[in-house]
Amino acid sequence: MSQLWRDQIQVFLAPERVDLVRTARGFKPVQSAKVTVLCERVQGVPAWESALRQLEQKLGDAAGAGLSMTLSNHFVRYVALPPQAEITSPEEVMSYAIFRMREVYAERADSWILSVSEWSPVNGAVCAAIPRELMARVEEMAARYQFKLKEIEPYLASAYDRWQKLLRGDKIYFVVIETGRICVALLIDGTWYSIRNQRILQNVADELLAALDQEAVLSGNKETVEVVHLFAPEHPDLTLPENCGWRIVPIQTGQIPALAHYPSVPADYAGINQCLA
């Protein structure tokens, strides 16, 4: 089937929600309204299991479509790969990424599939890992329904790639917050320095402030007031205390809109499907 005529489906997959947008292709592509399905996690099964089952139900009538998926940071683990001048080949980069993942996450990394951003011996890269079982299930679903699986991308990487050109400064704190999780990336002079990906256990603002302070201490260099670039569509009213040493700069979605399938706080819940997995 020609890509021109293949419907395109974009999905955001998280432990307790699935956001789906379908675009009918042709001479005049038509994008449907976003469908959001809220799910309850089930004890004893992987965190992605319930959401993936609900996604499969929603995609049952979309056989043959192109499928792109953004994965919640709940399902992803990250490490920064500091630059190494002697590492140049793709094989050396992957060996380096495997070493760094095992260094941070020990034997758990053996059950993950690794993906590395564009490598630079000067600026390094970032490595993301997702469960091997999750990848296998998505590929199996795509094959069964004859979907064209175009890409599977971590939320942090997707958001950073989309708004990278808006970020300025020698030191960049880039934060993505979703329900139940904070992801803080720090770049210094264009080099990936660190990535913190942690659960939110209580108050979002308090835990964001603590995470930022910890990253500043580990970097060894904090200005009197640091700027943090924040994308938190599920927390539109999030603020930090005055005189806390941090100034939030919301990502300017007016300049570059958020992708339609990214999670957001709905205006009303009439169009949301509630489901018990």
Q: From N to C, what is the helix and strand string?
A: EEEEHEEHEEHEHEEEHEEE
Assess the beta-strand content as a share of residues. Answer: 25-35%
- Secondary-structure-based class equals alpha/beta
Shape: globular
Give the termini distance in whole angstroms: 34 Å
Question: What integer is the average pLDDT?
Answer: 90
What can you see in these coordinates?
- By secondary structure, this protein is an alpha/beta fold.
- The chain has a domain of 89 residues: Nucleotidyltransferase, domain 5, CATH 3.30.420.
- 23% of the residues lie in helices and 32% in strands.
- It contains 5 helices and 15 strands.
- The strands form 3 sheets. Strands 1, 2, 3, 4, 5, 9 and 15 form a 7-stranded mixed sheet that branches. Strands 12-11-10-13-14 form a 5-stranded mixed sheet, with helices on both faces.
- About 2% of the residues have low confidence.
